[in-house]
Specification:
about 20% strand
């Protein structure tokens, strides 16, 4: 199977070489790797140039954006810039972060999944982060059937059906919800252990939490699902204020009448899906 990779990179000099080396070492090589230098002020561009000069499937795209960290929109906007450089002659498409080290057989196994399970539209492994003692520990705050946004692979049919990625916080939730709406399955493989070099949440703050609540409103969750999801998030992250920030963001978006990310029909499906998941866990 043929696949493309798009890697948004903003000031990733500390990690990017390791990420690109792990891509280079894949037993199933990509057809093309677009690395988007998103307004970096460090040596990110030089690292991209080094790899692209030695390996023909690496290509650089420069783009300008704000220096401010905007969860969701910044990374998706950069991803879309890279996507513009690619055609549609591929079997699956990968959005990869610039701080991930993948095992050598990662994409060989992803390709096997898509080939053997035609209903699967999104696939990926699990993220591990390094402890103080040097060991690597699983860090997966979402359900085990969720693929982290740091290394998501989409079949062409699925990516087309969901209309690409939404430029908003929550994009890596809405993509899976819309994939299910269109009849696709999500597949995770716990044998695929990706090393995440930057600890989860390092760049997030109270403003990001407000955006999380806003995303819940824009996904048409409704108040009760948003409250339950926020409570679960706060408990898992051991940050009680996250619950308050999320609901503040939710009501702020409601007051401002923020545009929705999904249609009414999709919203009905999403709420039913969420309630079924909650009931399964309770009963």
């Amino acid at each position: 199977m043929q696949y493309y990779i798009v890697i948004p990179a903003h000031n990733e000099a500390a990690f990017l070489s390791d990420t690109l080396t792990s891509v280079l070492q894949q037993t199933l090589a990509p057809k093309k790797v677009i690395v988007v230098n998103d307004n970096s002020t460090d040596t990110t561009e030089e690292i991209i140039d080094h790899f692209s000069s030695k390996n023909s499937f690496f290509e650089k795209v420069n783009t300008q954006s704000s220096q401010e960290h905007m969860p969701g929109s910044k990374v998706v906007n950069a991803f879309n810039k890279g996507l513009e450089k690619l055609g549609d002659d591929y079997d699956f498409l990968v959005k990869l972060d610039a701080d991930i080290i993948l095992p050598p057989d990662y994409f060989k196994e992803i390709a096997r999944t898509f080939k053997e399970q035609p209903k699967v539209g999104i696939a990926g492994g699990f993220a591990y982060e390094q402890e103080a003692d040097g060991s690597w520990k699983l860090n997966h705050p979402m359900n085990k059937d969720h693929v982290r946004g740091a290394f998501k692979a989409y079949t062409k049919t699925c990516f087309t059906a969901i209309g690409g990625l939404k430029s908003a916080m929550g994009w890596d939730t809405v993509d899976e919800l819309l994939a299910r709406f269109h009849g696709f399955e999500i597949h995770t493989n716990d044998a695929l252990k990706a090393k995440h070099l930057r600890p989860l949440g390092d760049a997030y703050n109270a403003k990001a939490k407000l955006l999380q609540g806003k995303a819940m409103f824009r996904l048409r969750y409704g108040f009760w699902i948003s409250a339950i999801a926020s409570l679960k998030m706060a408990w898992k992250q051991k940050k009680p204020k996250a619950f308050i920030h999320n609901l503040q963001g939710y009501f702020k978006a409601k007051k401002e009448k923020s545009t929705f990310l999904v249609t009414k029909e999709e919203g009905v499906f999403i709420r039913a899906l969420r309630w079924n998941g909650i009931k399964k866990k309770l009963f």
